[in-house]
């Protein structure tokens, strides 16, 4: 066999090797695209089901609880001022209905989170908290700043706000809720705290889908999430995301006298 024949055979082997490599790469790419498409479809189906459940809860259970609460209030107002066992029992029932309404609103917020729909993160948080102050018996205080960031980051932070507030309404039995969203020293800081019953982090951290989801959202935007909570001492959640603001924003920041202490 001539050297030229060996050279041709070697070239054909190299061509065949390239074809095999390209086919493997194409197969991996198709598998990845199929997996991503399937994941997107699953997420859409989950979202649609959550929307359906939220509509049914709002249209049935939530409305019935509201009507029952109004009836109980009217009954108590029309009764004699002297306390009695029956009066106390009615008051307890009214309190239970009001608590059920609160938990229902929290569940609706969890199942059907309101998107930003073109609003900035500040506008979305402000609107959400203004609405809550009108619907829940909770003292809500907040400070938010207009921070220019990309839409994906705003969406992730807003979902964290919604999930955290939903947890407070459902579990904390709090009297006060504080929300802070500002830029300080190269970080976007989102802090949400309440004075509720708190929880045992060691028992909760592995089993809570909501907490895991918030952690994943923080990581997705390059940030960190810390939660500090003790039984009977409330809960504090803080997200810190490294972020370089534009010069105009930095100038505005220098004029601010407010100083926020961040967790180390």
How is the topology of this model organized?
Blueprint: H1 3-78, H2 85-111, H3 121-135, E1 139-144, H4 151-172, E2 176-184, E3 187-194, H5 201-204, H6 209-220, E4 224-229, E5 235-242, H7 247-255
Parallel strand pairs: 1-2
Antiparallel strand pairs: 2-3, 3-5, 4-5
Helix pairs in contact: 1-2, 2-4, 4-6
Your description of this structure?
There is one protein chain. This protein starts with a helix and ends in a 9-residue tail after the last helix. The protein is 62% helix and 14% strand. The longest helix has 76 residues, at 3-78. The protein is of the alpha+beta class. Helix 1 (3-78) packs antiparallel against helix 2. It folds into two domains: 1-112, no CATH class; 116-258, Heat Shock Protein 90 (2-Layer Sandwich), CATH 3.30.565. The protein has helices at residues 3-78, 85-111, 121-135, 151-172, 201-204, 209-220, 247-255, and strands at 139-144, 176-184, 187-194, 224-229, 235-242. Strand 1 (139-144), helix 4 (151-172) and strand 2 (176-184) form a beta-alpha-beta unit. The protein has seven helices and five strands, in the order H-H-H-E-H-E-E-H-H-E-E-H.
């Amino acid at each position: 066999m001539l050297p030229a024949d060996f050279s041709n055979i070697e070239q054909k082997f190299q061509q065949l090797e390239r074809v095999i490599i390209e086919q493997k790469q194409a197969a991996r790419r198709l598998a990845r695209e199929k997996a991503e498409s399937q994941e997107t479809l699953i997420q859409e189906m989950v979202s649609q089901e959550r929307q359906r459940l939220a509509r049914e809860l709002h249209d049935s259970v939530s409305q019935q609880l509201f009507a029952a609460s109004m009836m109980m209030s009217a009954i108590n107002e029309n009764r004699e001022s002297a306390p009695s066992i029956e009066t106390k029992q009615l008051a307890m029932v009214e309190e239970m209905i009001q608590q059920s309404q609160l938990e229902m609103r929290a569940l609706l917020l969890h199942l059907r989170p309101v998107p930003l729909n073109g609003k900035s993160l500040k506008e979305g948080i402000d609107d959400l908290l203004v609405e809550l102050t009108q619907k829940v018996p909770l003292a809500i205080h907040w400070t938010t700043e207009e921070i220019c960031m990309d839409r994906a980051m705003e969406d992730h932070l807003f979902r964290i706000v919604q999930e955290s507030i939903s947890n407070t309404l459902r579990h904390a039995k709090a009297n006060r809720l504080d929300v802070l969203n500002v830029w300080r020293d190269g970080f976007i800081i989102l802090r949400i705290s309440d004075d509720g019953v708190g929880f045992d982090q060691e028992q909760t951290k592995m089993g809570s889908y909501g907490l895991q989801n918030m952690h994943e959202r923080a990581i997705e935007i390059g940030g960190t999430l810390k939660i500090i909570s003790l039984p009977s001492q409330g809960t504090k959640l803080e997200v810190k995301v490294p972020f370089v603001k534009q010069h105009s924003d930095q100038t505005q920041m220098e004029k601010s006298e407010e100083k926020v202490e961040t967790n180390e």
